Amino acid sequence: MYYQQQSVAQAAEHLGIPPGTVKSRTHHAVRALRGVLLTRGLTEA
């Protein structure tokens, strides 16, 4: 997973949190975004 050309390890170091936390927060954010897009009919399941 990359965000603005940063790896999970780089993002974790920059934010001062463990890499697992970065992965977990990213996972939950993607699920929430997918749910919103589905309810608005902007993507398929």
Write a compact overview of the structure shown.
The protein has helices at 8-15, 19-39.
Strand-helix topology:
Layout: H1 8-15, H2 19-39
Helix pairs in contact: 1-2
Summarize model confidence as the mean pLDDT: 92
pLDDT < 50 stretches: none
Radius of gyration: 13 Å
DSSP strand (E) fraction?
A: under 5%
Please tally the β strands and state the result: 0
Plain-language structure description:
The chain is mainly alpha-helical. The chain has helices at 8-15, 19-39. The protein contains 2 helices and no strands.
Key structural traits:
single chain, 45 residues, mainly alpha, 64% helix, elongated
